[in-house]
Amino acid sequence: MGLQPDIEQVIARSWEATKSVPGFLGENEARFLALAATSVPAHGVIVEIGSFKGRSTVMLAKLAAHYGLGPVISIDPHTHNLSEKTADSSALPSTHEEFLHSLREAGIEEQVEVHREYSGEVSRNWDRPIRLLWIDGDHSYNGAKEDFVNFLPHLSPKGIVAFHDALNNFPGPIQVFVESVLRADKFGPVGFVQSIAWAQFRPNDSSGFAAQRRNLERKASRLIPFVKRNTELRGLTKVLYKLNRSRVPRTLLPAAELHHLLNT
After folding, report:
1. pTM above threshold 0.90
2. Domains in the chain: how many in total?
3. Which of 87, 107, 111, 129 is the 20 to 30 Å CA partner of 208?
């Protein structure tokens, strides 16, 4: 399928509705999600694990509504703020009402299927194909791995899996991406956009992308020793982490180039 001729205008309008929503998604990250959701030649719904106050939900739902991509599936118990490092997340206020407010303000309530549950609960009875699997929930290693393992069987061939905060100091997203994606022979094009790590699921023709995966794996894997302890980085350790992170390419491809890559 061809690149949507009005994609630039639709992304710009969607970002205008998104940028005032509280959250941690950058503009280039939002743009990437929009291009990924609309460019992949895969069937299925958009699944978002971890919605917080609805920043990425609004962006994705605006695009999905315009292009008729079906509902955005939002999975989040809304029990805590993932940016807080605390042993007692239940003590933090719920984000559910603010999330619903964001949907109402953007006018996309009907475009979002809300599951106020943990992803493991939703995955037990999941039976729909997925075109874009957006993982932005529990950033621990076990949490990110569980989200990936539970929903990967439903990712359509040539669909995309993307992890948020893979280039931030969290142990889960980068480790799962390196170990289960870059070191696996099931994925084609791979890359980073700001802190997003992404890959296209290509179980039948991944071999042509092996060199690219290995090259990116060598650079990205150097970050794992720094984030494994899930503690604040300080001093020389922080400097070394940033130095290694700077060597990971994370530029957003132009829309036409990304579309061609995903449809080759």
Report:
1. yes
2. 1
3. 129
